Amino acid sequence: MQTPYNQHFCADCSLKHLASAAVLAGEILNGYNTPEYAFYLLGNLNEAEEQLSGIDPVIANALRQLRKAMLPEGLTADITPERLNYMREIARWIDARIQNGFYRGKHCRCSAAETDIIIPLRTNGSPFGDRELRLALRSIEKYLRGFRNVFVAAKKLPPWLTGVEFIPVGDVFPRKQMNIHHALRTMLKTPGIAEEVIFWADDNVLLSPCHVKDLPLAGRRDDLLTYSDAPDAKIWHRSLKETGLQLAAQGRKTVNFEAHTPVHFNRDKYLALERVFDFYSGVGLCYISLYFNYYGFTPDGPMNRYKATFESENVPPDALNGKLFAGYSDTGAKAGALALLETRFPEPSRFEKKQ
Question: Confidence class of residue 6 from pLDDT cuts 50, 70 and 90?
């Protein structure tokens, strides 16, 4: 079997070449039917096909058939309005698959440098002296590839922290969800922040090598609407239910994405949610589930496939085996999760000032 000459597979790059091909095909259709235009059209269509050949053979084959129809022999192009419209339709297919996570884990690394990490900290500080943040940053430095800068939103930074972009934000709203959304919104409006970001809580720990393009989107097995919004229910459960109700009112799914793992946000898409939802009323909204349901994402798999969770007095070390992430509550931290994870990451990161 012949090996493709181009093994740099990327749906985003395929779209770029397809856009160039569409411009050239339009020019040819308007009368510029020269061998030179046909030559560049052939190259861009072939490159668009190659970029998908290893990650989406169905659409790659559709591009191949289109190329053969548009350039049946040599550098003589046969462009019709129907074929040009079909090219645009293929582009819409690729874009829809990108938006719905079809290529997650299949991207190349060409655009990954424009991904920033955003970490909000609680105003009243950590009960553990910000050991959680140390661990998160140590795991990011050791295992995460492809990110650019780290932004930390806080009322004030821990004295040991260095090498991050500081965004001064304090808690000003009555609910945790409201304050975290406010911190995210403030960071995403910061000049110079990347269009693509990863929201990373300080108690998220990465346990093995991973590229930013390959971070999975985890979901929970329950549905947002299964929770209670009774006045005596937990505030968190009422927030989940309210989020589900508002999504359902918009005709969206109500998957529970509150897996407490790092997640990708598109800056502009996240900020656009404020034009649809009120984040600052009632019990508050669950911004992660809101984002991924509103924009039609599907989980890559259940939370327990990717994450070891320590939220009780039981902290078994073998729970970390085979997991990509670890997460813990204050109860789990007190019970030994922090100490366990510190044995994994004993060395300071570049984000810690030298003693």
Answer: very low
Q: In what order do the strands lie in the sheet with 204-206?
A: 204-206, 325-328, 307-310
Pick the CATH number of 112-218+255-271+284-344 from 3.90.550.10, 3.40.50.300, 3.30.70.250, 3.20.20.70: 3.90.550.10
Q: Kindly report the pTM of this predicted structure.
A: 0.72
3-state secondary structure 76-109: ECCCCHHHHHHHHHHHHHHHHHHHCCCCCCCCCC
Question: What's the one-letter identity of residue 148?
Answer: R
Q: Could you tell me if 162 and 229 are in contact, meaning their C-beta atoms sit under 8 angstroms apart?
A: no
- Please, is 1 exposed, middle or buried when counting C-beta atoms within 10 Å of its C-beta (0-12, 13-18, 19+)? exposed
Strand ranges for 106-259 from DSSP E: 115-120, 144-145, 150-154, 165-168, 196-199, 204-206, 210-211, 218-219
Please report, for the chain, the start and end positions of each structural domain, with discontinuous segments joined by +.
11-99, 112-218+255-271+284-344
Q: Which two tokens stand for residue 304?
A: 């327990």
Q: Is 257 helix (H, G, I), strand (E, B) or coil?
A: coil
- Residues 189, 169: Cα–Cα separation, whole Å: 12
pLDDT digits 0-9 by tens, 303-334: 999 999 999 999 999 999 999 999 999 999 99
Closest CA to 141 of 353, 355, 347: 347
How far apart, in Å, are the Cα atoms of 162 and each of 61, 159, 204, 350?
50, 8, 19, 8
What is the token pair recorded at 88? 């645009």
SS3 (DSSP) at 262 = coil
DSSP secondary structure letters along 122-139: -TT--TTTTHHHHHHHHH
Q: What percent of the chain has pLDDT over 70?
A: 95
**pLDDT tens track for 52-107:** 988 889 999 999 999 999 999 889 899 999 999 999 999 999 988 887 777 765 65
The answer to whether the beta carbons of residues 155 and 169 sit under 8 Å apart is yes
